[in-house]
Amino acid sequence: MNFDPAKFFIGLMDFFTVLLPGGILVYVAKDALGLHGFGASFRDFSTVEGWMVFLVASYFVGHFAFLIGAMLDLLYEVFRRRTLNAQIARMARDGVLSWRPLRVIVWLLFKEERDRALLRAIELKRQSLRRVGAEDSMNAFQWCKAYLSIAVPESLATVRRFEADSKFFRSSVVLCLAFAVMASCPKWRPGFVTNLSIAYAALAALALLALWRYMDQRHKSTNQAYWSVIALIANGAKAPSDTNRRAGEPTHAGGVVLKFDDPKGRPNVLLVRTKNHPQRWVLPKGHIEDFETDRETAVREVREEARIWARISDDLNNGASLETPSYRVAPWAEEIKVRYYLMEYVEGLWMRPQDRETEWLPMSQAINQVAHGEAKDILEKAEEIVSKRTRSSDRARSGSSA
Predict the structure, then answer these.
(1) Quick check: is 77 in a domain?
(2) Is the domain of 137 the same as that of 263?
(3) Range(s) of the domain holding residue 373
(4) DSSP secondary structure letters along 32-46
(5) What's the predicted TM-score (pTM) here?
(6) For a Cys staple, 22 with which of 48, 58, 121, 296, CB 3.0–4.6 Å?
(7) What is the per-residue pLDDT for 18?
(8) What is the rounded distance in angstroms from the CA atom of residue 218 to the CA atom of residue 212?
(9) Are 74 and 175 in contact (CB under 8 A)?
(10) What is the mean pLDDT of residues 356-371?
(11) Mean pLDDT across the stretch 78-95?
(12) Which stretch of DSSP H or E encloses residue 181?
């Protein structure tokens, strides 16, 4: 009889996600349940009847725990939709950040995940299913698992192992809640619970750790599926790109970041040192990546190079043209055209120190400090726009005071 890894891992998943959580809960509750109608055989595992009752009860209770635990997927999606990519998109679109504690939780769970594998897998799925008109018949994770089941079942086994772990810890959260309910009722309280405060604290800690582990393992299972499919398809063909920019469109985007901390309303502007030539000061900018708008690129590049969050100031950018002419750094290099946005400082990042030195300077000093003529031109245009707004604000204040 040949060993089938796929079937083995399906059985392993059933054990970890259903039988094991159910068995733990039934074993802890057996004394209380035996005293309330199930009889002595339920508490006695020395007989065949006792083991049969235990296994059947574990199977049913495990499925109930699995069903209730599935609702935690909704909580996972709440956090999953607020990864770094989503935060950058929201800042570029609305100029606001999520609640700070929520951002801290998302960082603990997903670090600086930018969903590149997910976005690429979605594009590959659409291309594959478009031929049969079924682009929306399944999500990217389901498609990746189906693809792997046909192409490389061994890779699917790895994904399923992560899935089994995540679902076990998801059910473990339900077990902790069930134990808390049992501990609160004297008739159902397990005999080993002697101090309710300690029991509740321990269950709360275990539930949080199990929830964290569930989300971590689920994230690994989905990413493993995306990575495997992307690697397989990349072996046979060039991965598609959604970025087919027409001639004349910006290839890079960046920000002229202003901090209005001067009492007279004159802002300071952010400069960063270059990596290759640390003595040079430049404006933060970078290449517009696949699945990314130029506004999102500006927000992301400012965050990566200066370790700050900055919002795009739509009132300052209204009608303003802050684009460089096309140029090449070398005759054989790609043609570069940069679109800059006037941005306003929001807050600094606490997660890690800056990789590059930054400096806030008055606009006139910044114009003299930057290394490239294109950046000087951009700063001069920015200075003109800000000066017009400052003069308009001064006239408005003078009119209101009169």
Answers:
(1) no
(2) no
(3) 252-401
(4) HHIIIII-GGGT-TT
(5) 0.84
(6) 58
(7) 85
(8) 10
(9) no
(10) 91
(11) 93
(12) helix 153-184
